[in-house]
Write a structure and sequence with these properties.
Belongs to the ComF/GntX family. By secondary structure, the chain is an alpha/beta fold. The protein has ten helices and nine strands. The longest helix is centred in the N-terminal third of the chain and has 19 residues, at 30-48.
Length: 277
């Protein structure tokens, strides 16, 4: 019995070519093929089968139906230009020739950041989107926040940042959660603004307690030395992105670290702002 191999002079060139052709598809790992097929099926199902609006539950091809998407982002809210705290007329302050309004706290003790752009208050029903993004990996909410932040930025007179960074998570929290919700907003926002987005410039070098459980003074101490800068930010305007701004202690500490590293200006882009510090 004669045994043929690819190197055998008795094995035809055509057979060798056909063998290679039939083996090529099987060089792709099965897991990679399965992921590609699953991804394609998911995209196809998303186009063919409507889902539910995350806010009202009505049928929708997108995260939000057209009615909810049009309704909840146009809140007529006067905010402090520095920290985005909602203001009432009695709390409005102006600084010399500055036509923008500021809260008394920011004028008395200015934070390290220069400006804050917020979409809306952290309250129902939009708080649902922040919770879904942060704890349930509904990353489509990050895209939605980014789209509306970009629209709000286009309507503002704020300068364009040189680079956009997310508020980083500690390594322990990133491993536990599997993703950074701030980066889920920052990356599409940077793309829409045609600005470089970089999640490696800022690192959280100290694991801190959850800010929501602490009072305002403890929050500031909690994050006072939590960040480190690994990239060159000298002379740059840095846009910092976060999902929710409460007291501003985290963003203040991060902006202070950026300024100490040479950043010229820091602007916060936050999806939702609590009505009170």
């Amino acid at each position: 019995m004669r045994v043929f191999s690819a190197s055998s002079r008795h094995f035809s060139d055509l057979a060798v070519m056909n063998a290679h052709r039939f083996c090529l598809p099987f060089r792709t790992p099965a897991a990679a093929r399965a992921r590609a097929i699953a991804s394609a099926l998911k995209r196809l199902a998303g186009r063919a089968l409507p889902g539910q609006c995350a806010l009202c539950g009505n049928l929708s091809q997108e995260l939000l139906c057209e009615a909810c998407d049009a309704q909840y982002w146009n809140e007529p809210r006067l905010r402090c230009a520095t920290c985005a705290l909602p203001l009432v007329a009695s709390l409005m302050r102006r600084e010399r020739e500055d036509v923008r309004v500021h809260c008394a706290a920011c004028l008395a003790s200015p934070p390290a950041f220069n400006d804050t752009l917020a979409l809306a208050d952290y309250r129902a029903p939009l708080d649902t989107l922040a919770v879904e993004l942060k704890f349930r990996a509904r990353l489509a909410a990050g895209e939605t926040f980014a789209r509306h932040l970009h629209a709000a930025f286009e309507d503002s007179d704020l300068p364009v940042p040189d680079v956009i960074v997310p508020v980083p998570l500690s390594r322990a929290r990133l491993v536990a959660r599997g993703y950074n919700q701030a980066w889920a907003i920052a990356r599409p926002l940077a793309r829409r603004m045609s600005v470089r987005g970089d999640a490696s410039i800022v690192a959280r070098v100290r694991h801190t307690s959850a800010q929501s459980r602490l009072d305002q003074q403890t929050r500031r101490r909690n994050v006072a030395s939590a960040f480190a800068i690994s990239g060159d930010v000298r002379g740059k305007h840095v846009g910092v992105v976060d999902d929710v701004m409460t007291s501003g202690a985290t963003l203040d500490a991060l902006a202070r670290t950026l300024k100490l590293s040479g950043a010229r200006r820091v602007t916060n882009f936050v999806a939702l702002r609590t009505p009170k510090d």
